[in-house]
């Protein structure tokens, strides 16, 4: 907790060195960098990108950095310290919008050579250089810091090289500089996973030389320049791991591990990075040259371009979650089941105050346990975990309603139960409070019918598990006010999820597009195709999990409920569920949660037969095209505003192969004409459920 | 240390602001069973503080102060009142302090709050008590500490080797500080031994003590069954997903025969105080909310009771269990009341023998004449009005909490029985007692 007094004072706290004296003359016209010298002839260089709340490495900022270095080369200072003037952090990485605009491999090569030249000159400066890192220091930002002799981190520093998530690897010399600074296997793991390290672990692994507080900066910097700071040094082990034969063995292991996580034919970046290390790891300069070529090739390839697109989809969704004046501070959750409990725990984890009501206190107690486990999984300290659990208040008497800014109802999917809850709660809601439902199948209009003031009612449809699935469908209803919609979206942003505003229609967006896909898989099983074959087909396409495994994972009872609801409410043909499916569900085969579904489940893993037969020709189309078709229907009916939001929602709500850019983007890349053709063919062969949606022909 | 006259406070109370008790809550009391329980003292205070604050019509920041009684303060929770206040989200501005007067701590917090509101310097105060005896620290013996210090100070390898030869086996036997805490340093008697002394001075029979203990268990068991404690006990939830809903020391199946089989625990083999007729060693916390008239009007509160007065008395530590009699005497005299006017009583059951000794002393003409300066005995307390829903023998005695619990429970019991006036009192290790006079609104 930081109270108002300390918060007010903290804004004074950043050590500005010679720039603290506002009379310092700024002789240069740089827009993004500020340079000043202190009384010991140490140069202080502040990265302060203009017109931006964060620092990124763009063409402009890199070129300017080159000019600054040029200036320093003419008159070498006693030392150089680089830090950021932005509260958000050192540097968030490269300017990805500029990545998107580069699709000529030759042009990329030229730009990279220029940037490398500047980085190399920084690394070659003869005076000692110190990077002082606070906040986010990612990607290219970390690569700049790696060019310095020392790195000092403040406790809030977060270091990482997440380029792999965009289908790339580091492109500003980081592949070489990191593997030659710390244990090369640790370095490769960091780059292959894209994981972020906090200050403590960065020091542990040698990425930074010391973790200091802001109040230590002046003394720590002086220690560095006076040679009293011990820089991290690789040991004998690191050197042994860098020899040729060692690299070959390591590369083999890394390949095996990587291909488990992401099929190399879909995600080429890990292989490219491993090959860089295998072939050039012994020579830092050579590796950097090879890095440029490799990076340029990846950047202009489909996977990277699609993943970059997905990144922008998530940014677009984040913008929808713009903060309003009224922050949600207190959330009251009614219903502590699988969804309600997870929602409550996640909100407490994200810093909100949560009261959790359920008629069964055992159910509430289990949420406390699960939330404690979440904190452990996310490496929270004992006192951080204590704070999270202090904020998660069991509320058997349903007292939290009166003080809540937002009430989320997550009780069983029965209209009368939900109505009962609303009738009890609504009179007690405070002025300005929102009422949200986590319903996945009941139309909001019906739910709202018992409300006196439906303007504050909206749907917030979370996905399971809440801690992992970043999407929340924000379900509109006709009488919700603009404020309610804005606040609901902002709340989703507050808890680090992505909002997808959708209209209240059966299945909203995600379930509606997912169901035809899952049902087709069940029909195929009915036709005698092996579950493993079905799943393998789709995994080859790029989905993280096949439809049969997904159905088992979600729960066959839930699939049945959603399927029946959609069949009842939608006026379009859906595949009919075979009777044996209902009997299986009724007999208790529910999938993962009961240990048996289409697969047997042991330790949360499906037991698959490895010798399943190869898929037939139209198997992928039979599974994938119904989903695409349903996406087009949703677009045409205005269930979601546009193609980009749809792609984002389906990717973050289902894990749809992100390197394909999303269902609509994939459809566009295939060509709508082809899509229509293939749907017509399937329709002729298998039934009218494959009839192409009219939207394909209208030019969208 | 011997005085035949007790001190009485003859100052007439000046016109003072009324002090209301608005609400209160406590955790279930959990018997200590060898290993540390799931909750530290502050954890317990937070567990019952959260639902209590949640059900008030004003925000947690509205309080002026938090006062918390706690005897066994843990080193990583210094000034537990403040730690609890911050963890309860009461805001950085919340003033908070911890009080310790041994077993009286949970009542002292109420008394301090009561007086500050009465004199006008506070309007709304949260006063509580907490204790986690299961977390009582192991202490290293003093000479072991000194040995460790010399080891650290040893300059050479030879020095260190020499120190090692000085080590004694029993350096590694920790002292259970709980045992130390329950022994009075002035008279060198444990609390249980002081009860034995009273047993002899007032001719209390072993059977009567055991019988009293059985009634304590029966009353608590019945109270639990009839949900008499539902509006004061709030369930506690651990981070492992365990739930605690009831005081767990109660033995509804106990009997005089079963208790008769127990060996004396403090003075073997001829004493009469056993584990069965003593209070249990327990973890628990309790809070009450006290408010001035101003606060009641401002937040539109519905008070449950008024705190009329309090009294504190002191006596030879060797017979500490008797001190409540003096506190009761003081309270009745200062408020011009006869004991028959008191509808319900809570006398903390430190030991059955001790409670029975107090009752006998109140009826004893010689004691009341000589010590209390009374022409008539103080009175006979009707057992059906005393500790009506059980007490520390069945519930447990978390040392810093009990004083708070008996006030909270007295208020709830007065309201449930539809009667007006009650006294809650407890003996305090060291030879003291606190007593509070409560009236329902």
Can you tell me about this structure?
The complex is a heterodimer of chains A (700) and B (441). Chain A has 700 residues and is α/β, with parallel strands linked by helices. Chain A contains 29 helices and 19 strands. In chain A, a hairpin with a 2-residue loop joins strand 18 and strand 19 (605-607). Chain B contains 15 helices and 14 strands. Chain B is globular. Mean pLDDT of chain B is 92; it is low at 1-5. Chain B is α+β, with helices and mostly antiparallel strands. At the A-B interface, helix 16 and helix 17 of A face helix 1 of B.
Topology (elements, then pairings):
The complex is a heterodimer of chains A (700) and B (441).
Chain A: H1 4-10, E1 33-37, E2 42-47, H2 59-74, E3 79-84, H3 96-101, H4 105-124, E4 129-133, E5 136-138, H5 140-146, E6 150-153, E7 158-160, H6 174-179, H7 184-193, E8 196-198, H8 199-205, E9 210-211, H9 217-225, H10 236-241, H11 244-261, H12 269-280, H13 284-299, H14 302-320, E10 330-334, H15 338-349, E11 353-357, H16 361-377, H17 382-390, E12 392-394, E13 406-409, H18 415-425, E14 434-437, H19 444-448, E15 457-462, E16 471-476, H20 482-494, E17 498-503, H21 510-526, H22 531-541, H23 547-554, H24 556-569, H25 579-586, E18 600-602, E19 605-607, H26 619-636, H27 643-654, H28 663-670, H29 672-686
Parallel strand pairs in A: 2-3, 3-4, 4-6, 5-7, 6-9, 10-11, 10-13, 11-12, 13-14, 14-15, 16-17
Antiparallel strand pairs in A: 1-2, 7-8, 15-16, 18-19
Helix pairs in contact in A: 2-4, 4-13, 11-12, 12-13, 14-27, 15-16, 16-17, 21-23, 21-24, 21-26, 22-26, 26-29, 28-29
Chain B: E1 19-26, E2 30-31, H1 41-54, E3 65-69, H2 80-87, E4 95-99, H3 105-119, E5 124-132, E6 138-139, H4 142-153, H5 157-165, E7 175-176, H6 177-181, H7 191-201, H8 206-225, E8 236-237, E9 243-244, H9 256-260, E10 282-291, H10 293-299, E11 305-314, H11 323-334, E12 344-347, H12 352-363, H13 365-370, H14 392-395, H15 402-417, E13 421-428, E14 432-440
Parallel strand pairs in B: 3-4, 3-5, 12-13
Antiparallel strand pairs in B: 1-10, 1-11, 2-10, 5-10, 6-7, 8-9, 11-14, 13-14
